[in-house]
Amino acid sequence: MVLEAVIVLLKAGFIITVALTFGAVLTWVERKQSAVMQDRIGANRAAILGLRVIGLFHILSDAIKMFTKEEFTPARGDKFLHTLAPALSIFFALMTFAAIPFGDTLRVGNRVIDLQVANLNAAVLFVFAMVSLGVYGVVLGGWASENNYSFLGGMRASAQMISYEVTLGVSVIGALLIYGTLNLQEMVRYQGHMYAGWIPRWGILLQPLGFLLFLVAGIAETKRVPFDLPEGESEIVGYWVEYSSMKWGMYMFTDFIEMTLLSAMASTLFLGGWQVPWLMPDGFHFPWATVPLPHLAVVVLQVGAFLLKVSFLLWLQMLIRWTLPRVRYDQLMAITWKYLLPLSLLNVILTAAVLLVLR
To answer: Is 28 in contact with 22 (CB distance < 8 Å)?
Structure first.
């Protein structure tokens, strides 16, 4: 019993560390990738003992700045809720990672360890429930600041997140119909099969429209450009205008963690999760040859493949963030209610019809 608890804590520590590391690195990537795209040098000034390491020390300098800046709470604001709100946002974002499988199984002696913190039968519902609860952090932050502009920013954010959650939920129903389960680990194992012995049965090949809709709705859920109307740090006053120091840092960090969460979920549902094409538990089984591998090497390749897919989708989100302009609020609502949601429903109907014919 104690050993089981220790194993769960180690797995939780690993996945939280990975999520926080991605979030920290993204604070640098955001500036560096924009600099590359705009033909600038970018963040490269922070140095330790003269070493700049392509600007990576900016992550450390940002953390020091966040923890040492003056903490501010509006005089008429609710101090308890003002402090609680950003903590709620980041807590629910991190909790969601518990249901995401980052590998298959690890054998240590006679013990088989599932590389997932919580193997839930209804993992998809758990993920959407946690994402929905994150709205409270945004709304409470805007309300507790006792500032009309913060409150309006919170209202904009909650309307946007709730609207796009509908599309986000409907966009995965087609994949659920094909996989026949709500268990994320079982979904990834389903995608490990091959068509004709060499084409991976990944969700993106079975549900290309579902993948596109999930990605667009997910980017809107993260409140990033071109859907950053709740924040609009340079032009629009958002729900976090009365926040400073690490409380503001938690809101900013939540955005990056939500980007990582979106990438992890998209990888799990549509890109095969930890699956590597032709990699089986005993090694590679290519159509033309077999390459046996030790168990530990297979585990490392599977976990590495999952992290690589997450990294690719994060790069893609950054590319979109620095390419597209911000949409207007009426356009934001029209996109989801007039286009994305009808397309999501059409995708469900078509998928169900095809499955009915095939069976």
So the answer is: no
CB 301 within 8 A of CB 276: yes
Crossing angle between the packed helical segments 295-321 and 2-37, to the nearest 10 degrees:
40
pLDDT digits (tens, 9 = 90+) for 160-206: 999 999 999 999 999 999 999 999 999 999 999 888 778 889 999 99
**Residue 236: which pLDDT band, with cuts at 50, 70 and 90?**
low
The CA distance from 255 to 32, in Å, is: 17
Question: pTM higher than 0.90, yes or no?
Answer: yes
Structure confidence by residue, pLDDT tens digits, 299-321: 999 999 999 999 999 999 999 99
C-alpha span between 220 and 126 (Å, rounded): 20
> Residue 204: which H helix or E strand, with range?
helix 203-206
Q: What angle do CA 314, 316, 321 make, to 5 degrees?
A: 95
Angstrom distance (rounded) from CA 218 to CA 227: 10
Residues linked to residue 279 through DSSP beta bridges, in sequence order: 284
Q: Is the pLDDT score of 207 beyond 80?
A: yes
Instruction: Calculate mean pLDDT across residues 27-33.
Output: 91
| Separation of CA 146 from chain center | 31
